[in-house]
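Per your request, structure below.
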């Protein structure tokens, strides 16, 4: 994962955010293009990293893996439906939602197994194969045996908020009051240098949409 994060970062960036959809919200009987077409304004996966999620989807680079979804035969009613493979469908969707971003995608046919001892915390709207139903079944459904899953790592502007908050918290720390800093070999100059590097890293994730956030505060010392 460390090497993958390095591959996704450039222009001084070093951090990536994790996203996932467990399970991937695919209706039973619907094709992958049908599912993705329903999420043109918002992606069908959620942010796992401790950042504030933004309404506008943007990223610099990403790696996305989808498993458990196969390409069905369908009529070409949209550009996504006209793609010849599941990989092409996912790749075209990523280029549409994240124009200009470097995107790699991988598709695995095998779903994620959820048999015992996997916890059965799923909605009753899921079939045994992890696909969504239009309405709850009239009978007690069996345990979910497998689910389609999507996971992604993104070098994304959402990380600006996380790094900005970390900078503000660290600026409030007066290392002179903490003997443990010095006993661990941390010098005042080293701390300030690391803080400045964090500020620089934070600025690498600015895109011009962060005007509502305050600028980094001055050193508390």
């Amino acid at each position: 994962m460390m090497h993958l994060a390095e591959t996704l970062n450039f222009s001084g960036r070093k951090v990536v955010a994790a996203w996932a959809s467990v399970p991937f919200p695919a209706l039973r009987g619907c094709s992958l293009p049908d599912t993705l077409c329903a999420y043109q304004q918002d992606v069908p996966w959620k942010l796992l990293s401790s950042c504030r999620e933004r309404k506008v989807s943007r990223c610099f680079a990403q790696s996305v893996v989808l498993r458990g979804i196969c390409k069905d035969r369908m009529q070409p009613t949209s550009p996504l439906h006209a793609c010849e493979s599941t990989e092409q469908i996912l790749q075209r969707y990523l280029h549409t939602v994240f124009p200009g971003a470097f995107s790699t995608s991988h598709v695995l046919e095998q779903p994620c197994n959820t048999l015992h001892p996997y916890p059965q915390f799923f909605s009753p709207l899921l079939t045994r194969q992890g696909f969504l139903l239009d309405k709850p079944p009239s009978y007690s459904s069996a345990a979910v045996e497998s689910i389609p899953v999507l996971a992604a790592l993104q070098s994304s502007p959402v990380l600006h908020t996380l790094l900005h908050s970390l900078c503000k918290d660290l600026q409030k720390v007066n290392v002179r009051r903490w003997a443990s800093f010095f006993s661990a070999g941390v010098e005042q100059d080293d701390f300030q240098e690391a803080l400045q590097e964090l500020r620089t890293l934070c600025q690498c994730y600015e895109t011009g949409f962060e005007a509502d956030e305050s600028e980094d505060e001055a050193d508390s010392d």
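The radius of gyration is 22 Å.

Regards,
D.
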